[in-house]
Amino acid sequence: MKKVVITGIGMLSSLGVGVDEIWPKIKEGTSGVNFLKKVDASDLKTKFGAEVSEEFNPEDFMDAKEARRSDPFIRFAVAAASLALKDSKLEITDENSHLVGSYIGSGIGGIQTFVDNTLVYNDKGPKRVSPFFVPSMVPNMAAGYVSIFNNLKGPNCAACTACAAGAHSIGYAAMMIERGDAVAMVAGGAEAPLVHVAIAGFNVMRAISTRNEDPSGASRPFDKDRDGFVMGEGSGLVVLEELEHAKKRGAKIYAELIGSGFSGDAHHITSPNIDGPVICMESALRNSKINPEQVDYINAHGTSTQQNDINETNAIKKVFGSYSKELLVSSTKSITGHLLGAAGGLEAGITSLALSEGVVPPTINLDNPQEGCDLNYVPHNTIEKDIKIAVSNSFGFGGTNCTLIFKKFED
Question: Are residues 50 and 198 in the same domain?
Fold first, then answer.
């Protein structure tokens, strides 16, 4: 079977634009969470989030006309794809364009576009709805725009699997390379959920933090004082490439994607159980042809919600047994916030960088671990360690789960 490696990483988040801005802040444990500026949160219970950096200008990546008529999640994806492809130095030509594709997921899609046009419809009638309403709203348009802007004529798909969408997209894109449908894929997720009604929706579910007195300390996975996740926005994309193709052109290789696992909880639309994550991680280990004891690090789903963190911890204990005490486990959502459908893509890039550089990023704000949350969550500070194999977990509403396993590349 063909091997798949990561040769490019594109990141856009509250921490900045691109790997060079974002990765150092993740290693430093610098929170990207602050009070909302683009949303009037005066009547919301939650008044903060992880908004894309003010340094981001979509016109650096697309013309002004396209930027105006496309939803923010599309703009985020186009930017991250441009950054990832530039990083990979992969040249797209008429000869190879049919072998390079895009697989970019989103949990919600163009919700800002949906809200804006609904208000126009209610106020001014159906004739005033934008002709770009539907093309900017549907979740596959991040993959579509990236394909169009970069002449990618290979597979063009999108996963719409809540908070697992970015990870699922990477897993499925890798399968397309393994079976020869493509030599490279731009894959991951994009999300722009920081919209008034979406925040209100998560508030009434009591899923997001209301720690308004301390926004930067609000995302605190595995801590007993956590009160929900912190919504974030942005995009995380990687360039997946067939190993021999990458080596032939002398590409820099961050890591190898050696396997993935997928599962369903078959339990509840929002409340997790242990079965799905256990099946997912066991499947990924089996598909990667490795033993649990070969794993050094887990980039946890680690949302900072009451149910997820203890559930994921118990699932790790069941899969890894007594060896779970030897694992390094951290949640970088404590730093970036939770980018929903983009989280798995961003965290795949983070995990690849961790393997490449021999560092494990921290879980910040972990001051008082919850009883039962007793693994090594790398609290507060990055650890330098030559890790060889790392797991990245992503779980979503509806009980949809994905586990990706990466290996340090050693030629």
Answer: yes
